[in-house]
Amino acid sequence: MADGKVYLTGYMEVPLERIAAVTAALPHHIALTRAEPGCIAFSVTPSLDDPTRFTVAETFRDQASFDAHQRRTASSAWARITEGLPRHYTITTD
């Protein structure tokens, strides 16, 4: 398991008909994630250029913290609300 920081960057595509639900769910999802042990930074923001694109940037202390985040979100309300939305992410480590 890697000992360095884990970075996820990229974007999620949200069709216009689902933007209201995703936007409403974001504050809770962000608050829960930022409270997780090992979360250094976390943001999901609407693109200024494309209303159907949400930019995602995450930094976790280590692989274990990132993996715990992935496990938590897999069964969360956020997972249900964003199910099936295309995600274009790159994950890198220190």
Strand order of the largest sheet: 2-3-1-4
Low-confidence stretches are none
H and E order = EHEEHHE
Beta-strand level of the residues, as a percent range? 25-35%
- Cα separation of the termini: 12 Å
Q: Could you say how many structural domains there are in total?
A: 1
- Determine Rg (CA atoms, Å): 13 Å
State the shape. Answer: globular
Remind me, CATH topology? Alpha-Beta Plaits
| Number of helical stretches of at least 4 residues | 3
Query: What top-tier CATH class fits best?
Result: Alpha Beta
Beta strand count: 4
State mean pLDDT (0 to 100 scale).
Answer: 96
Q: How can the largest sheet be summarized?
A: 4 strands, antiparallel
CATH-defined architecture: 2-Layer Sandwich
- Helical content stands at 25-40%
Helices and strands: which structural class?
alpha+beta
